[in-house]
Amino acid sequence: SFYPRKKIVLLHIKLSKTDEFDQILEDTDLDVLPYDKNWGQYRIRISQKELTSNLEVLMKLVEAAKSEYGR
């Protein structure tokens, strides 16, 4: 889910919390918010600069969410 704000966009990606995804996000310069245990979502705050430099990582996470929860 995308939640637009004035200067950023909040991105919530529904994925099970794993060490692999934690490491992928830790290796980027993205502003990662704490994992939402209630809803099972990674929460990421994205600016325009971060979007362009981390597009591949975000696409990988969205694809993983699609394969995990997609129909």
List the defining traits of the structure above:
71 residues, alpha+beta, four-stranded antiparallel sheet, 4 strands
Shape: globular
Ends distance = 16 Å
- Based on CA atoms alone, the radius of gyration comes out at 12 Å
Please identify the oligomeric state.
single chain
The residue-averaged pLDDT reads: 94
Strand content: 25-35%
pLDDT < 50 stretches? none
The total count of strands amounts to 4
* Major sheet summary line: 4 strands, antiparallel
Question: Portion of residues in helices?
Answer: 40-55%
Q: What strand line-up does the widest sheet have?
A: 1-2-4-3
Structural class: alpha+beta
Q: What is the number of helices?
A: 3
The ordered H/E elements are EEHEEHH
SSE topology:
Layout: E1 2-4, E2 9-14, H1 19-26, E3 31-36, E4 41-46, H2 48-53, H3 55-69
Antiparallel strand pairs: 1-2, 2-4, 3-4
How would you explain this protein's 3D organization?
This protein is 41% helix and 30% strand. The chain is α+β, with helices and mostly antiparallel strands and 71 residues long.
How would you summarize this macromolecular structure in one to three sentences?
This protein has 71 residues and is of the alpha+beta class. It has three helices and four strands; from the N terminus they run ββαββαα.
